[in-house]
Amino acid sequence: xxxxxxxxxxxxxxxxxxxxxxxxxxxxxxxxxxxxxxxxxxxxxxxxxxxxxxxxxxxxxxxxxxxxxxxxxxxxxxxxxxxxxxxxxxxxxxxxxxxxxxxxxxxxxxxxxxxxxxxxxxxxxxxxxxxxxxxxxxxxxxxxxxxxxxxxxxxxxxxxxxxxxxxxxxxxxxxxxxxxxxxxxxxxxxxxxxxxxxxxxxxxxxxxxxxxxxxxxxxxxxxxxxxxxxxxxxxxxxxxxxxxxxxxxxxxxxxxxxxxxxxxxxxxxxxxxxxxxxxxxxxxxxxxxxxxxxxxxxxxxxxxxxxxxxxxxxxxxxxxxxxxxxxxxxxxxxxxxxxxxxxxxxxxxxxxxxxxxxxxxxxxxxxxxxxxxxxxxxxxxxxxxxxxxxxxxxxxxxxxxxxxxxxxxxxxxxxxxxxxxxxxxxxxxxxxxxxxxxxxxxxxxx
Length: 446
Fold this sequence. Notes:
Layout: H1 10-26, E1 31-47, E2 50-68, E3 71-77, H2 82-98, H3 130-147, E4 151-170, E5 175-191, E6 198-206, H4 215-228, E7 238-244, H5 246-259, H6 262-266, E8 287-289, E9 312-316, E10 319-320, H7 327-333, E11 347-349, H8 356-361, E12 365-373, E13 383-394, E14 397-410, H9 411-416, E15 418-421, E16 426-428, E17 431-433, E18 436-444
Parallel strand pairs: 7-12, 11-17
Antiparallel strand pairs: 1-2, 1-4, 2-3, 4-5, 5-6, 7-18, 8-9, 8-11, 9-10, 12-13, 13-14, 14-18, 15-18, 16-17
């Protein structure tokens, strides 16, 4: 596949990585690991039919970690000259000699490193002349304005095409990497006038531009979402079922990942401490990790430590089977790495059978949440409180839009109180989930 546009060949990146490892060893490092990366791309934004920004980005960098016994040092550089690279290694060695020993520091066990490197189809460069990018962004925004005369303003339609490549290597003989791409189209519009204005957006992101929806579809949907929120008002304080639209349901799963990650656990800053083998979700919830899905955003044959990734059943029928651990956090916890240095890999929440519309139809009185504001999540206690907007439901029908309210609960109770997952699975980044219905939460309003 074409690698046009990169400044360095794969062999060049490998040579840089090997030179860094050799210099670290010669300088007294007992072990070392290196990341060498390069990326470039183009982004265009059109606002009200006029080009607002054209951005080109190109960057490169190395990061080198050295170990002198159990002492660790790290340094980075964006200068690929031989002298600068070796100076970075020397800086890391100097840092290591002055840091305290850490019994958990060091490379992974060699037996855990990846040895199989299948092509996961992650690299699909988009040959996108700037004129064509401008045209796509205009088509997206034009479709939003054409939806209704009540769509009166825009924050822009944007198109972006990004490519990157990297090599990871360590002194145990591991050296691997790959190229990847990410393309996206987004639109953000404003409907209404004066105090009644409502803003909404929508976007799509894929490895391949061929998998993106049409720009017109994205623009229209952003407009429809803004129009649907006109006439929003507050509701009285109460406790009712809350239905999280799929994009926000993915956020709920993100909170779980944060709480179940090694860093939070060994620092004792998670409400999921000592939860392995315990029921933490409703029995309706099963979450699988699938690192090797073709073209997926969270795919990879190895993690940031070089450890091989594997399919896992993280949650089965609500029971937590595994954490998300790197080599270091696993050692801190007296456990083994799960291949999650750098994060999770394609988490898939088992979908239900009903559409979002059918789920709404089952609610006698409740709230559909489509926007959350603020960062009111306490991972130590699980307490959850966020500003929210969405739609009030009466007798299975949308009654009116809602704004300026707060929803509150505790993630423990919320996870256990999940009554249904929708069939409307949405993929955002490394997570896939449908809408989630929680049996009861507190709504603070008028």
